[in-house]
């Protein structure tokens, strides 16, 4: 089968389109024929070596497709089932072996591409808004990169939960998109001081929660945007890692809460995984959650997809099609 392999960490040139043996499913696993694989920032961090893994490997950890075969002791799926998954390496390929317990059935009416598009960014938006800081009517949330993959989904879920959303974006095009997704106010944080604007918009009170996926460039000012006892939810680092941090700062700025959550801890049980994915699929089918597939690339074009994501051009999901 064809796969995108990584032998050494590096730039996009480190991604190699190669022929390798199709794997066989061991006990408890299923072989999935991949119809669409999601491209995510974590793939970039793994490619560049920012997140270290044993090499060589097949990149990618989000996909949707059809179960081709199952190993011993698998009861939750069978050959022919349409499934999606996240969190298992090897998705940039024609086939992948996945622990059966990680597979989520795709409802009949939902295209595989949409299912693949929502597993990582959608479930992240879901846990952030529903569990990490469970938004309630009247809350004010600051969402950075509000036209991005997670950002646009989080904005929609936050609005469904009754919160007021202030979004930040880098361009007018992205501002339009964030407004279409429901953001009440949008700040061009590359042109204006978002901290000052947030203070104006909240009459000096600040926001209840900041969902910050940008990291280094926004972290400090994000803390300044919070109300006393507000929640700083740092869940990504698109602009770089936040440097070491003195917890005393949380006291000085108003007994703030800081968390650095990760999807795997919010989908740790099969029950959690099925509930979260199921709720997203239901919203999508009911037209209550709009998932934007921005660009679709052939599997062999993984390098172009990474370049597109890293160069800040993306406005939604990027997919690779084997
Ligand atoms: P996005 O679609 O949001 O893309 C990243 C966006 O970040 C860009 O479009 C850009 O938006 C903004 N950005 C700001 N500064 C930079 C920069 N220097 N370089 C590139 N982009 C920049 O990506 P995702 O929604 O997929 O992921 C966002 C972050 O969240 C990533 O760090 C990812 O790893 C993390 N993440 C964490 C998860 C978790 O569970 N903890 C799960 C999913 C994602 P703009 O142009 O508007 O500024």
Tell me what you see in this structure.
- This protein has 322 residues and is α/β, with parallel strands linked by helices.
- It has two domains: 2-119 and 292-321, Medium-chain alcohol dehydrogenases, catalytic domain (Quinone Oxidoreductase, Chain A, domain 1), CATH 3.90.180.10; 127-263, Rossmann fold (3-Layer(aba) Sandwich), CATH 3.40.50.720.
- It is 30% helix and 27% strand.
- The protein is built from eleven helices and 16 strands.
- The strands form three sheets. Strands 3, 5, 6, 7, 8, 15 and 16 form a seven-stranded mixed β-sheet that branches. The protein has a six-stranded parallel β-sheet with strand order 11-10-9-12-13-14, sandwiched between helices.
- A hairpin with an 8-residue loop joins strand 1 and strand 2 (15-19).
- Helix 3 crosses helix 4 (149-160).
- The mean pLDDT is 97.
- The site of NADPH dihydro-nicotinamide-adenine-dinucleotide phosphate has 28 residues, from helix 1, helix 3 and helix 4.
Please indicate the percent range of residues in DSSP E strands (runs of 2 or more).
25-35%
Q: Specify the CATH architecture of the largest domain.
A: Alpha-Beta Complex
Q: How is the CATH topology of the largest domain named?
A: Quinone Oxidoreductase, Chain A, domain 1
Structural class assignment: alpha/beta
């Amino acid at each position: 089968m064809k796969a995108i392999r990584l032998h050494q960490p590096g730039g996009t040139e480190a991604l190699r389109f190669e022929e390798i043996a199709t794997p066989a499913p061991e006990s408890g696993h299923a072989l999935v024929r991949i119809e669409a694989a999601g491209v995510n920032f974590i793939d970039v961090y793994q490619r560049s070596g920012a997140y270290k893994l044993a090499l060589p490997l097949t990149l990618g950890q989000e996909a949707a497709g059809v179960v081709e075969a199952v190993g011993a002791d698998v009861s939750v799926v069978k050959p022919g089932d349409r499934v999606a998954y996240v969190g298992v390496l090897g998705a940039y390929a024609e086939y992948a072996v996945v622990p059966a317990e990680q597979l989520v059935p795709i409802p009949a009416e939902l295209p595989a591409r949409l299912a693949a598009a929502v597993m990582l960014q959608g479930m992240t938006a879901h846990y952030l808004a529903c569990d990490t800081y469970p938004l309630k009517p009247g809350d004010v949330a600051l969402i950075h990169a509000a036209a991005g993959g997670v950002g646009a989904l989080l904005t929609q879920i936050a609005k469904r939960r009754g919160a007021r959303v202030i979004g930040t974006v880098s361009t007018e095009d992205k501002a339009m998109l964030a407004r279409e997704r429901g953001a009440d106010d949008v700040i061009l944080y590359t042109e204006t001081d978002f901290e000052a604007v947030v203070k104006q918009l909240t009459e000096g009170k600040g926001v209840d929660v900041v969902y910050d996926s940008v990291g280094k460039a926004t972290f400090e000012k994000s803390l300044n945007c919070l109300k006393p006892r507000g929640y700083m939810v740092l869940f990504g680092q698109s602009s770089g890692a936040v440097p070491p941090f003195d917890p005393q700062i949380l006291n000085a700025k108003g007994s703030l809460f800081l968390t650095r959550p990760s999807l795997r801890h919010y989908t740790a049980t099969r029950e959690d995984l099925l509930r979260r994915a199921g709720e997203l699929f239901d919203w999508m089918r009911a037209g209550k959650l709009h998932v934007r597939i921005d660009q679709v690339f052939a599997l062999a074009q993984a390098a172009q997809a990474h370049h597109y994501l890293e160069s800040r051009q993306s406005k939604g999901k990027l997919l690779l099609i084997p």
